[in-house]
Amino acid sequence: MRSLRLKLILGSLLVLGTVILSFGLVVYLAKGRALLSVMDGRLATGVQAIASHVEFDKGLLVFEPAEDYDIRRELPQAYRIVAPDGGVIAQKMPGSSPGWPTGSPEEGRLVWTESGTKKDGRWRVVTSSLSVTDEPDGAEGESPGGDLIAVVTIQCAEPLGPVSRELRELASQLAVLALAAFLVAGGGSFLLAGRALRPVRRINEALANVSETRLDERLDPGPFDKELHPLIGQLNAALDRLNKAFRRERQFTADVSHELRTPVAGILSTIEVLLRKERSEIELREAHEDNLEIARTMESMIERLLLLARMDAGKASPARKPTSLAALVGEVLAAAGLEAQKRNIRLSHDVDAALRADIDSEQMKIVLGNLVDNAVRYNRPDGSVTVGARRSPEGLVVEVRDSGMGIPADQLPLVFDRFHRVDPSRSEETGGCGLGLSIARKIVEAHGGRILASSGPSGSVFSIIFPEA
Ligand code: ADP
Fold first, then answer.
1. Fewest 10 Å CB contacts: which of 8, 304, 438, 467?
2. Does residue 137 contact residue 121 with C-beta atoms inside 8 Å?
3. Whether the CB of 427 sits within 6 Å of ligand 1
4. Ligand 1 within 6 A of CB of 379
5. 374 Cα: distance to centroid of ligand 1 (angstroms)
6. pTM of the full predicted structure?
7. CATH number of the 226-311 domain
8. Residues ≥6 apart with Cβ < 8 Å to 413
9. Of 417, 433, 437, which is best to mutate to test ligand 1, by the most ligand atoms within 8 angstroms of its C-beta?
10. Where are the beta strands (DSSP E) in 45-93?
11. What residue spans define the domains of the chain?
């Protein structure tokens, strides 16, 4: 199972472990080197002490330290002095032999080796050469002035056992220390991780209180650490969006039910009245015609609702291709022709034949169809509707201009809302359901454009602007 707490604990232990291990290793190596260098110092002193007491006396090479008290203290635990023929001039060996290496280095050089086995004990050995000369006073074994008698090899050794023992002790002390530090750090990071995760639990509890019916609840960032404020801000913003979406959805469902109730009630009452008594053929026909008209309005509304739902779900993204605007406008005006004729409204357009736009022609027909339809329906008798298109610094602009009743300024921002009608009685009369402009805006926005409305006493203008790259 993935656990943040476990990750925090393991992470801090890993960091601590690396630090302790590196620290322990440095201490261990430094201590080992220090012990060895002290030992090497003693061995080098031993070599020097022996060298100053090797003499050529009465035709023999001898080592005579007996008289000298100080040299006894400087002599190492094991040493030997070897003549050039391999004969041992003097030696001291406590118990086992260090396993002396053979060969002698050039004078003045100290050669350091380690010998022996783990079982019998390991030794640190230093080997050096000494030229013995013939000195009349015989006090000094080595003198550049006399005749060379022989080159002897001096070897001094000390067991490495005590150094290893001391290092082993140090290692076990460090291990105990590391274990204690690990236990303390483990416990500490367990508590700290618990503390660090407490706000997450609190956010969780607060969010658990937010339900569909209490979507207006918000998290108060006050009691939380400042690092968590952006997260709480984002959560609150997400709740805001969710709340708005829920409200919109609820409002939409209520509006749809309301809109459908009126025509359904109309159909029902027509049928009820019809069934009250025997009806003539003409009466029956009139009733059917009324119901047919209501059913057609309902059908158009349901189709518009379905289109809106598909666009909301992002399932109706525009399939753009270069389209002639003059041809498109021509088609839309032709479709509105009959209705315009009925109301004696003149339709005209002012679109350059060469003007083309990268748009979904079917969707744009719906947009312009709605705008022209409105311009005809909300016009005065004998009025006019003009569709124009031009390029402007803002982009491609398509305008639908009418000579109608206009829209009050306070209503202008609302006409694109779903089911909004400036004058419901007039809309009912003209068969509008308040969805045309919201569909138009959705389609235009899906094309990356925007739609604006302006109005005055001489009529309204709806402008679509497609920004051009
Ligand atoms: P409807 O189907 O009711 O026409 P729309 O969404 O197309 O719905 O329009 C919303 C409302 O805006 C209409 O009910 C009408 O009151 C107003 N409206 C739209 N176009 C015009 C216009 N050209 N002139 C005056 N009022 C308009």
1. 467
2. no
3. yes
4. no
5. 6
6. 0.58
7. 1.10.287.130
8. none
9. 437
10. 54-57, 60-63, 78-82, 88-92
11. 4-167, 226-311, 318-466
